Amino acid sequence: MKNINKESFKKEYSKRFLELTGKRIEDGTNEQKYYVLGSLIRGYVMNDWLNTQSRYKKNNKKEIYYFSMEFLIGRLLSDNLINLGIREVCQEALADLNIKLTELEELENDQGLGNGGLGRLAACFLDSMSSLSIAGHGCGIRYKYGFFNQKIIEGKQVEVPDNWLKQDNPWEVKKKDESEIIKFGGEVRLENVNNKLVAKHYNYEAVLAVPYDTPVVGYDNGVVNTLRLWSAETVNDEFNFEAFSKGDFSRAYEYKNSVESITSILYPDDSNYEGKILRLKQEYFFVSAGLQSIIKKYKNKNGEIRKLNEKIAIHINDTHPVLVIPELIRILIDEEGLSWEEAWDITNKTVAYTNHTILSEALEKWPVDMIKKLLPRIFLIIEEINERFCRELWSRYPGDWDKIAQMAIIADGYVKMAHLAIVGSHSVNGVAKLHTEILKKREMVDFYNYYPEKFNNKTNGINHRRWLLKINPNLRDLLIENIGEGFIKDPLRLIEFKDKLEDKLVLEELCIIKLDNKINLADYIYNTKNIKVDPRSIFDTQIKRIHGYKRQVLNCLRIMDLYNRILENPCMNINNRTFIFAGKAAPGYLLAKNVIELINVVADKINNDKRVNDKIKVVFMENYNVSLAEKIIPATDLSEQISMATKEASGTSNMKFMMNGALTIATLDGANIEIKENVGEDNIIIFGTKSEEVLEIYNNHGYYSYDLYNNDYRIKRVVDSLVDGTYSNDRERFRIIYDNLLRYNDEFFVLKDFNSYLKAQDKVDKLYSDRCNWQKKCGLNIASSGVFSSDRTIQEYFNEIWS
Ligand code: 26W
Question: Is the same domain home to 468 and 383?
Fold first, then answer.
């Protein structure tokens, strides 16, 4: 990074402002000021970007490509300034020009090209790869509309399109000259060319894939990697020329629209797999484009195609990009002339796969007919992989048809994408220890027995530069003051903070920092929701996608129960609490939408009931996204990680809260278990049914939610209040939740864990009353959180999978 001083920055900024807007700064809008700043910073990055690429080429370094349907980046301005080490100087220079940097930062639209955990993980990984000087790039889709914006109207979620590109995006560079052609449909014939059978593709529809590159700036190291997102365009003309010349204009534009629709929208569903052809198109589109461009670049470097796997690693983020496997085989055989055996071997050594969920309803399987029609050549290759794999299985398990049918890639008219991913890659990993064990022992046990060497665990992590340095500057300064800057590049060194916690002054400081953050959030809540919350109350937060298994219902029922109890006993001696929720429901997920409505209705009732108002308040914050998480997390005292054991693969917000000094109330699920191992059981509050018990109950069918309801007065009272008019005159309003708990036997054990959860919450209340002790626990959480930096995770991927 070139050296920047305040005066030269001011000059450059003013000059750039005039060039880009045709105005003087004082006449420009804030949006223009943001855009000019972004484009100036991107300009600064350009040299490092080019140099990084030249270095990789010269050193012939292995390059990693992280393929993901989702990259949930959030904002980039301040992260880039921090990683470049120029935030302060820019802030001062801008102040001289009468511009507030923090105001510009707030203007940036979130780049919300992801649903939740999986997409955010991809974004954290990109930052860690650059910051660790690993040659690793992202490959994905440039959706025109990101994850929908959520509005709450009369308590209900309403979805509004996220037209994020309405604001010019200063970070991306369009590279039309590096476009690729993607072929859909048509027929494939095997033809004899020089005594060799060669696949020829006819009558296909060609679509142009145009790349947009965004620089991924490493922290203080001059490394700039690339996030390449693909956008669909028509190949030749803006429209169907034939239709156009015949005067059929609407059909001419229809064609253009249908092509562009491939990259128009992000599917907003991370709970239910839906076999939509557009989604399959998206998957093949970006996979094929990405691979073609990687191979072109590799061959340009004079790479011998047979050594591809020595210089390229491809990682697939869940099964969504799994078509890289047949697509790579296609390129190697049809375009490079390799034999099946060679192509298979190279592909297998190149590709690695991460599984992010065991929820069976989220597993991808595509109807055979759909793949055959849309991707005829790819289908032939999948068929061949399946046939060879089944033959192998036959020789290993002769006569065991059941097992072979279970493990086959194609069965019952479907292609099972997870099976294709496991068979076609050299590494399969889960995202937390428990999750990996469940994959090995249960969900994928047959595959584990067959390929034990492929399976491994890589516990998730978070980018501590964004999720600590950036979002909690006062905590960052306190840490630097006490343990120096070492933890920034080596987050495990956060543990050095542990010794400092004997110092009362440090605990005091921690307390002040948290209170400050809470005051900021309270202001924000007041400004956006017109609700007054007490910054001295416990900020008790559950923010994540709304989903049955994440059990926002459990949280809400205990609030309803507490409300009942305070009304019964107005002098009840408890710490005041502010309950904070945020999260989006998939548009078609009725239970989740009903939960949002319940939380909002409960919030309304409680917040307007003077009898309880100095004690509790409930806030549902609209439109959860990365930027909102950045505001809530540093201000939270208690982090709710209450999924039903076995269901949450890892969770990553749990790590963000820990790193910002919240205590966690949790079930022993996902990475919560490892949080407990690291911070010690006295510094986390654990409750609920354990994973082994869950599995045991599954085997014995030994759970009846009706029994609990009938035999426990508090449970009965709170469940009844869903339908007895307490919260709504419309007694059917929360019927879906009610039926889920009773009629459908409470799939996620909400009632089963209710009492243990209440006890755990009582324990939280007691702990909080001893403020000094509580602060110490918070400090221990911060000190123990280094292992959850994505730098650690990425180093493990690099050492154990990619090299
Ligand atoms: C096909 C529809 C669909 C789309 C996305 C199904 C499933 C998904 C994702 C796999 C869901 C997801 O985001 N999983 C989350 O991944 C995080 C990162 O590993 C984990 O921390 C979360 O526990 C897991 O739910």
Answer: no
* Residue 27 neighbours by CB distance under 10 Å: 10
Q: What is the DSSP string of 105-129?
A: HHHSPPEEES-SHHHHHHHHHHHHH
Helices (H), 108-232: 117-131
Question: Is the same domain home to 413 and 510?
Answer: no
User: CA-to-CA distance for 238 and 226, rounded, in angstroms?
Assistant: 28
Residue 357: is its pLDDT beyond 60? yes
| Residue bearing the CA closest to ligand 1, atom 17 | 117
On whether both 326 and 219 belong to a single domain, the answer is yes
Count how many Cα atoms sit within 13 Å of the Cα of residue 353 in the half-sphere of its side chain.
25
652 is catalytic: yes
Residue 279 banded pLDDT, cuts 50, 70, 90: very high
Task: List Cα–Cα distances, 286 to 53, 586, 704, in angstroms.
Answer: 22, 24, 46
Q: What is the pLDDT of residues 645-666, one digit of tens each?
A: 999 999 999 999 999 999 999 9
Give the residue from 368, 403, 425 where a domain finishes: 425
Largest distance between two CA atoms of the chain:
92
Residues 160 and 299 in one domain: yes
The two beta strands, 156-162 and 146-153, are antiparallel
- Reply yes or no on whether 426 is catalytic: no
Q: Are residues 479 and 413 in the same domain?
A: no
For residues 587-608, average pLDDT = 98
Task: Report how far apart, in Å, the C-alpha atoms of 385 and of each of 369, 408, 421, 422, 668 are.
Answer: 17, 10, 11, 12, 39
Choose one of 425, 444, 475: the last residue of a domain: 425
**460-469 residue pLDDT tens:** 999 999 999 9
Q: Is 669's C-beta closer than 6 angstroms to any atom of ligand 1? A: no
Answer yes or no: is 47 within a domain: no
Instruction: Tell whether 416 and 518 lie within a shared domain.
Output: no
Handedness of CA 335, 338, 341, 345 (dihedral sign): negative
Give the structural domain span for 573.
464-796
Does residue 272 have a pLDDT over 80? no
How far apart are alpha carbons 677 and 721 in whole angstroms? 39
The verdict on 529 and 658 lying in the same domain is yes
550 is an active site residue: yes
Q: Among residues 384, 352, 382, which one has the least CA distance to residue 368?
A: 382
Please tell me the total count of domains within the chain. 2
How many residues are listed for the chain in this entry?
Answer: 803
The rounded mean pLDDT for the chain is 96
pLDDT band at 238 (very low <50, low <70, confident <90, very high): low
Q: What's CA 264's distance to the chain center, in Å?
A: 19
Average pLDDT rounded to a whole number, residues 474-495: 98
Q: Two tokens at 272?
A: 């239910």
Look up 545 and say whether it is catalytic: yes
* Model pLDDT for residues 744-755, shown as the tens digit of each residue: 999 999 999 999
The catalytic position among 142, 419, 454, 545 is 545
Within a domain: 83? no
783/647 same-domain check: yes
The closest-lying atom of ligand 1 relative to the alpha carbon of residue 115 is 13
Q: Is residue 208 part of a domain?
A: yes
Within-domain flag for 621 = yes
502 class by beta-carbon count within 10 Å (0-12 exposed, 13-18 middle, 19+ buried)? exposed
Q: Which atom of ligand 1 is nearest to the CA of 649?
A: 23
